[in-house]
Amino acid sequence: MTLEMAIEKYERKRERSARRMEAYRRLAGWLRELEGLRSKGRWIPVGEALPAGHETYNVTYENRTGLHCDSAVYNPSLKKWFWDESEETEVTRRIYAWRPLPEPYRPQAYSMAAGGRKGE
User: Fold this and answer.
1) How far, in Å, CA of 8 to CA of 25, rounded?
2) Do 58 and 71 share a domain, yes or no?
3) pLDDT tens profile 61-103
4) Would you call 46 helix, strand, or coil by DSSP?
5) Pick from 75, 25, 38: which is nearest to 53 by CA?
């Protein structure tokens, strides 16, 4: 093998390695994005963490007929759950887990710029 051939071989390997590294970087980014999406919608047991924000959440609770899902408001200052935003009706059932509400469905024709009306 000549010196010129060795240099060309090394450069080809280096180019393949650079493309491979770029592919690994993209893959790592996609995996981070996937993990973010998975954790965004996962149920969080109340023993693991309680919400930090004063918002409405999906909850899994138990009553005499079993486990059910509903929405409830969590007040972190009071460390209590309420069935209503006015916080008049406290949740007396055992809550097992919570998760943030999903984003609302938005049809393609929906436009915030159009004031919430169908736009073009």
Assistant:
1) 26
2) yes
3) 999 999 999 999 999 999 999 999 999 999 999 999 999 999 8
4) coil
5) 75
